[in-house]
Amino acid sequence: MASATLATPAIRPDVSALFQSIERAFTTTSLGDNHWYLLTLAALVGGTEPLLADQLYLHIINKPDCQQSDQRQKVVRTLREALVKLVSIIGVCKPLEAILAIAKVERPEDRDYSFSRKDWANNSENHARGMDWLRKIYTHNTDKTLALFDAHKDFRWISTEITYGLYLSDRQVVDDIDTEVVVLVGIMIQNLPLETAWHIRGSRRIGISLEDVKTMMDCVRKLGEFMGTKLDRIPSADDIEKELRAYTRFVDALPALPVEEPELLLRTTALLHDNDTNPSERSITACRTLDTFYPTTMALNHYLHKKVSVLTLDGRTMVGILESCDGSMNLVLSEAVERIIRPREEDVPSEEVPLGLYIIRGDSVAIIGRVEEELDASIDWTQVRGEVLGTTKHV
């Protein structure tokens, strides 16, 4: 009974007005009741005002639907989980400041002692859960994004096992939309253009509408202005939407293309997957590629970055990894070798001549096919004999 007489600390008028303006903005969205305060928390903590987390908590528990201890415990569980996820986005210090600020104004009977990650283990289930959420956000960009860390495997491990496995894929308290709101805002408020673009895209992929994403970003800018935080490097949601539409248009067009066509898939996919390019420039270039495309060989998309064997019109055989192909069937092979197979009657053995990175003109290609790598590696090509191949003519 004594706790009922405790006075609720006052909320600063300017902060209260800010919270009310964000809350009003969210009434136009389909995101739900709690997303406005998850966004606000992520922006304050990712920005310069983690200590205002107590003001946010007090603002929320003053509402009519938060007058019981179990209701306030649910609020603090949600805020705490958002802060835990923010550790993976902004580091540990600011979320610690925020949760301790909240703890100072909590009533004893409102404290929640649950421990969401008590049984966490870095095992195959954690990896699978993390990769599942990672692929929902990045879809076709997943492998290329992870490949950015091929020379920095500690960061790749942190991304898959800790950021996504331990933190972001946990669904005991918050759902997919909650998580992506926290992540997008936590990144955007740091004025990080590349990862903001990735997570605008991720937000759209998990079902947040374009208009709702725009509203969220407007709210983050309002919070940034309140804190004096500059957000001058952030791409617009419309730019990212152009990219997504370009990719959708590309995928939808594939079934209508003749089966002999590789260039659209190879060139346009490369453009759309290029995380280092400005998103709006990438989408525009990809659209132009789609619009100006002419037929060649669609089947080659299955061969990209795989080992192939190429027979040329003059009877030569080249083997290597197919790195690129254009509309004229010009091929780029890496780790290329020329296989020279000699007849039995010759004393000189057959040989493989290293070529390295090698370009084959499209008008010299007769046949290209996949190599079964395990079988290929088991063959001593210096011992293979055969008749010299003749030349081939296009008729």
Order of strands, main sheet, comes to 4-3-2-1-5
Question: Would you identify the regions where 5 or more consecutive residues have pLDDT less than 50?
Answer: 1-5, 253-273, 279-298
- CATH-defined topology of the largest domain: AhpD-like
Number of separate domains: 3
Can you count the helices? Answer: 15
CATH class of the largest domain: Mainly Alpha
List keywords for this structure.
single chain; 395 residues; alpha+beta; AhpD-like; SH3 type barrels; disordered N terminus; Sm domain-containing protein
Description:
The chain is α+β, with helices and mostly antiparallel strands. It folds into 3 domains: 1-116 and 170-234, AhpD-like; 238-299; 303-383, SH3 type barrels (Roll), CATH 2.30.30. Helix content is 50%, strand content 10%. The protein has 15 helices and 5 strands. It has a 5-stranded antiparallel beta sheet. A hairpin with a 5-residue loop joins β2 (317-325) and β3. α2 (35-46) packs across α4 (69-90) and α12 (237-253) packs antiparallel against α13. It starts with 12 loop residues before the first helix and ends in an 18-residue tail after the last helix. InterPro entries: AhpD-like, Lsm8, LSM_dom_sf, PTS1_Protein, Sm, Sm_dom_euk/arc. Pfam families: LSM (PF01423). Its main location: nucleus.
Chart the SSEs and their pairings:
Blueprint: H1 13-26, H2 35-46, H3 53-61, H4 69-90, H5 93-105, H6 124-138, H7 142-147, H8 153-168, H9 176-188, H10 193-205, H11 210-227, H12 237-253, H13 263-273, H14 279-291, E1 307-312, E2 317-325, E3 331-340, E4 351-360, E5 365-370, H15 373-377
Antiparallel strand pairs: 1-2, 1-5, 2-3, 3-4
Domain Sm: 295-374
Family: Belongs to the snRNP Sm proteins family.
GO molecular function, one term: RNA binding
